[in-house]
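Students often ask what a holo structure prediction actually looks like on paper. The answer is less mysterious than it sounds. You provide the chain, you provide the ligand, and the output is a string of discrete structure tokens encoding the 3D arrangement of the protein together with pyridoxal-5'-phosphate.
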Amino acid sequence: MSTVAPILLTPGPLTTSARTRQAMMVDWGSWDDSFNQLTASLCEQLLAIVNGADSHYCVPLQGSGTFAVEAAIGTLVPRDGNVLVLINGAYGKRLAKICEVLGRRFSTFETAEDQPTTAADVERLLLADPGITHVALIHCETSTGILNPLADIADVIARHGKRLIIDAMSSFGALAVDAQKVPFDALIAASGKCLEGVPGMGFVFTRKESLAAAAGNSHSLAMDLQDQHAYMARTGQWRFTPPTHVVAALHEALLQYNEEGGLPARHRRYADNCQTLLDGMALLGIRSFLPEAIQAPIIVTFHAPKDPRYQFKAFYERVKAKGFILYPGKLTQVETFRVGCIGHVNQAEMQAAVNAVAQVLEEMEVLEI
Ligand SMILES: *Cc1c(COP(=O)(O)O)cnc(C)c1O
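The corresponding structure tokens follow.
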């Protein structure tokens, strides 16, 4: 193993600061007051980011992001609920899969991977099926980096008196969502994405009344967010063993988030990273998959070079040797690769990554882009 850790240009786990990693050098007792205060402070800071302190609870959950998504659907959708799942990529498909596994009735609406779901689509679907109780949506679909028009879609759903569940995993902390303006029952995110913590816990913002009404919905003990919240409200503690080091790291990451200037500053840095990446790759002739208008500044999908001398695995290994970890594509139709814009990285590092890509293509004698 090399002594210099590579920079992760991936959508989580991602590059964290030394300060965040340092915060994990302490062992915390789960019963201890200072750890419980850490959890409480964490939830309070997270709620502030969505402006949800009065209207919503923040319920943390052990596990990766998907655990929190599954817990949110299992807890908030009653067993006789009916979910409309909006899909334009792999994470949308995962929402449908979760509904299927949990035995919740659901229907899907799928657009192409470079096509955002529109509010008009949702309006038409809700009118066509009045039995729909909930709509589930991916905010930034990480499989391409496409941004779905959340605010417009949320308006339509609220107007029809339906409930909205948002997977905002890859956007939370960088793209603003105000709980007082965007009505939702649940918004789900995790420690190891735009907040630049380490992976290991998810959290769900739930409308207070919706969570109170959700007792008994869950098919699962460990994934029951209503019970998780009730226990935490009563005792100040996590129900089962908490990911103590992950909590401490996220708390430290949030201090840095606020020092940097909160969401506007985080958004700006990622938008600058994204622009540097797009401009640099364009100079190499590498085309991005999405038009800029629907590209979120989170992760960018690029068309792979056409040259038969290009092979992702070899390309990946050579770029890694120069200090950068890229991400494979996740599209079935076209050959692509992805580069994340998030994590503790700035424009200089993005430019260095582009330079590494340029050198590697030259080494591999990839001529036809
Ligand atoms: C990362 C991510 C998830 C969660 O994935 P895990 O592998 O379970 O952490 C869910 N949805 C989206 C949009 C994501 O980007």
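The longest helix spans residues 262-284.
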